[in-house]
Amino acid sequence: MDGRIFKPNETREIAELIAWAVSENQPLEVIGAGTKRDIGRASNCEYVLDVSAMTGIMLYEPEELILQAHAGTPLEDIEKALKKHNQELAFEPADYSALLGVKKAKPTIGGILAGNISGPRRIKAGAARDHFLGVNAVSGRGEIFKSGGRVVKNVTGYDMCKIMAGSWGTLGVMSDVVVKVLPAPAGQASIVVLGLSNEQAIAAMAQAMKSDCEVTGAAHLPLDIAKKSKISEIKDLKKPATIFRLEGVGPSVTYRRDRLIAILATFGKCEVLKAAISRNLWREICDVTYFVEPAARCVWRISTTPGEAAKLVAALKKHGSVSAYFDWAGGLIWLSLAAKDDALAGPLRELLGHHGGHATLIRAPAALRAAIPVFQPQNPGLKLLSQRLKRGFDPSGILNPGRMYAGV
To answer: 110, 144, 215, 328: least surrounded by Cβ within 10 Å?
Structure first.
C-alpha cells in the first residue's frame, strides 16, 4: 500500500482488500493504469484499488487463438506478443490516453474490457465483449469468482464476461482475463472519396457496407476534421474525406478494392492509400486524435442509427459550436464542442430521443461530469435491472460508487 493507494499482487489480496473495505464501509476507486480515469462521474473515494501491479501474459496459445493475461497488463505488451505470431485483437481497441491528457500511462487489457472499448473494426469483427471469453474477478462482497474459460461456447447461467464488459469496475475487480485472438490481415488498403457532404458520405458508406466487398472500416471526416489529420494524403487535399478500409490477402484486397471503386463511382473519384498510410490513418480515427487539442473542448461519443447520423449532427449545430466526424459507417459520432456550449447536453439527450441512440460524455471538467449524466440515462426497466445487478455483486456499494450513475 502507498498512502491510500492499494496495489495488490494477486487475486487473494484483492479479496482481502475488498473485505476490509466492506467492514469499514470505505468505498474504493478501482483503476488499472488510470488512462480512462476521467471517463464517468468523478470519484469521491478516499482509497484507490490499483491493479496495475498485476501484469503479465499467463497463457498464450496461438494455434488455439486464445490469450490469458493479468488485468493490469499493458495493452501494448499484448499487442507485441500477438504481432510475433501475426495475430491481433480483432476488435481494434482504442487508446484514449492523448485525448484525456494522460502522458505516461498506457491502457491495460482489463481497462479496455471494463469499458468495452472497440475501434473502427467493430462493424466487421464485433465489440470487445464479443472477444471476451473468461474472467477471474472479485465481487464487491469480497468473493472470488470465475466465469467462462478458454473456449468460445462455455457459458452457463450469467454470461459474466458480457456483464463485466462495459461495467467500468462497478460490479467487480478483474484479476485476469481470457480473450479470443485472430490472425492479423496480411494486407490492407483504403479507398478515399473526396468532397462528400455528411449526407452523401452516409449514403456512400451504406452502399459500401451492403456490398460483398467486406469493408472493415468506414468513416467520414468533414473538412474541419480532415485538415487536422497528420496524413498529408488527407490533410493537403483540403476536402472532406470518406474512407473505406479493406483487409486480407493481397489478391483479395486488390479484387475487392477495384470492385468497391466501381460501386462508389457515382459518388465521385476514388483515391487509394497504400497500406502503411492506411494503417496510420485508421489509428488516428480509432484514437480520436483530432480532438486532442484544444483540450478545453468537451468530447462526446454518440452511437446512433447510421441513417440518422447526419441529421443529428445538423440539428446539434443549431445549438452550439460543434465539430464532428463519423465512424462505424455512421453508427458512431465523435463530437467536440466549446466549453461555453456545455448546455448542449440537454438538447443532445432530447434529440437522441427523436433520432435514437445514446451518448457518453468522454472528456469534460469534473464539475460538469458531476452536474450532468455522463452515461445515457436509463429507462425505468433498465435502471431497475442495473440496480439489481449492483446489489447482487456489490451490495455495500463500495466499487466505483456513482461512476456510471448516481446511487449505483
So the answer is: 144
pLDDT value of residue 320? 79
| Residue that finishes a domain, picked among 259, 287, 315 | 287
Q: How far apart are CA 208 and CA 22, in angstroms?
A: 53
Q: Are residues 126 and 5 both part of a single domain?
A: yes
Instruction: List the one residue out of 287, 16, 315 whose CA is nearest residue 138.
Output: 16
Tens-place pLDDT, residues 321-367: 899 999 999 999 999 988 665 667 778 888 888 888 999 999 998 88
Other C-beta atoms within 10 Å of 388: how many?
10
Q: Read off φ and ψ for residue 358, nearest 5 degrees.
A: -150, 155
Nearest CA-CA partner of 291 in 94, 104, 56: 94
Q: Return d(Cα 7, Cα 13) in angstroms, integer.
A: 9
Kindly report, residue by residue over 365-403, the tens digit of the pLDDT. Answer: 888 888 889 999 999 999 999 999 999 999 999 999 999
User: In 3-state terms, what secondary structure has residue 209?
Assistant: helix
- Spatial neighbors of 21 by CB under 8 A, at least 6 apart, are 27, 28, 47, 49, 396, 398
The C-alpha cell of 61 is what? 496459445
**DSSP tag of 39:** S
Cα 19 from chain centroid (whole Å): 31
Burial class (CB in 10 A: 0-12, 13-18, 19+), 316: buried
Both 250 and 308 in one domain: the answer is no
Dihedral (CA of 307, 310, 314, 317) sign: positive
Find out whether 174 and 113 touch, Cβ atoms under 8 Å: yes
| Neighbour-count burial of 286, counting CB atoms closer than 10 A to its CB (0-12 exposed, 13-18 middle, 19+ buried) | buried
> 85 and 169 share a domain?
yes
In this structure, the answer to whether residues 259 and 320 fall within a common structural domain is: no
DSSP state at residue 229: -
The three cell numbers of residue 273 are 492509400
Residues spanned by the domain of 206: 187-287
Give DSSP secondary structure letters for 175-197. Answer: EEEEEE-EEPPSEEEEEEEES--
**CATH code, domain with 209:** 3.30.70.2190
Domain match, 367 and 382 both: no
- Number of domains present in the structure of the chain: 3
**CA atoms 145, 150, 152, 154: torsion sign:** negative
Task: Identify whether residues 283 and 293 lie together within a single domain.
Answer: no
